[in-house]
Amino acid sequence: DAKTTQPNSMESNEEEPVHLPCNHSTISGTDYIHWYRQLPSQGPEYVIHGLTSNVNNRMASLAIAEDRKSSTLILHRATLRDAAVYYCILRVGSSNTGKLIFGQGTTLQVKP
Amino acid sequence: DSGVTQTPKHLITATGQRVTLRCSPRSGDLSVYWYQQSLDQGLQFLIQYYNGEERAKGNILERFSAQQFPDLHSELNLSSLELGDSALYFCASSVGILNEQFFGPGTRLTVL
């Protein structure tokens, strides 16, 4: 499985945008980029995923570099509820298993 | 609420014992995954079932086993428990193999 690298922690102020980076230099052409987050005392939850183009949904935006070796999860206005561990995960598009391989993730602190 | 239910929420037992963790997937989801989260190892994939059949195995110990029943609920059996098995065990479900996964609230296992 291709590896991802994320900063251990980041801080943000409430109501400001947050850009969470992820490096995946060994990504292959069929790997999808997925983001999950885990709020304190809860199970992980799906945030967003993409392959090549930038993606937007109600939770966040995903910006994917042209060479696909990095991506950025964008929270447009951070709230206190967004304080969580954010995981960037690569999933093989042609795989016959949907297992998620979690790294250490980025712990996001949101300050009021 | 993800729609995935796990029972029990908490389990305290002694070394050498055997326990069963139960997971009910979201209605319509065919795939069930089990993950273990401990402080030192982070979130680790254990095993996946799809429509009753084992699809993938991760770092699952031989003392652990799982199955998915015809009604699609799943059970994770942990036997000859050791102190190091204390962890949060999450179940997740998805419609297909590569769709987003929905995680349950977890079962916290404490082995004394």
What is shown here, in short?
Chain A has about 110 residues and is mainly β.
Task: Map the helices and strands.
The complex is a heterodimer of chains A (112) and B (112).
Chain A: E1 9-13, E2 18-23, E3 31-38, E4 45-50, E5 55-56, E6 61-64, E7 70-75, E8 84-92, E9 106-111
Parallel strand pairs in A: 1-9
Antiparallel strand pairs in A: 2-7, 3-4, 3-8, 5-6, 6-7, 8-9
Chain B: E1 5-7, E2 10-13, E3 19-24, E4 31-38, E5 42-50, E6 53-57, E7 64-68, E8 74-78, E9 87-94, E10 102-103, E11 107-111
Keywords, please?
heterodimer, A: 112 residues, mainly beta, 5-stranded mixed β-sheet, 4-stranded antiparallel β-sheet, globular, B: 112 residues, 7-stranded mixed β-sheet, 54% strand
Explained architecture:
The complex is a heterodimer of chains A (112) and B (112). With 112 residues, chain A is mostly beta strands. Chain A is built from no helices and nine strands. Chain A has strands at residues 9-13, 18-23, 31-38, 45-50, 55-56, 61-64, 70-75, 84-92, 106-111. A five-stranded mixed sheet of chain A has the order 1-9-8-3-4, with no helix packed on it. Chain A has a four-stranded antiparallel sheet with strand order 2-7-6-5, with no helix packed on it. Chain A is globular, with a radius of gyration of 13 Å. The mean pLDDT of chain A is 93. Chain B is globular. Chain B contains no helices and eleven strands. Chain B starts with a strand and ends with a strand. Chains A and B meet through strand 3 and strand 4 of A and strand 4, strand 5, strand 9 and strand 10 of B.
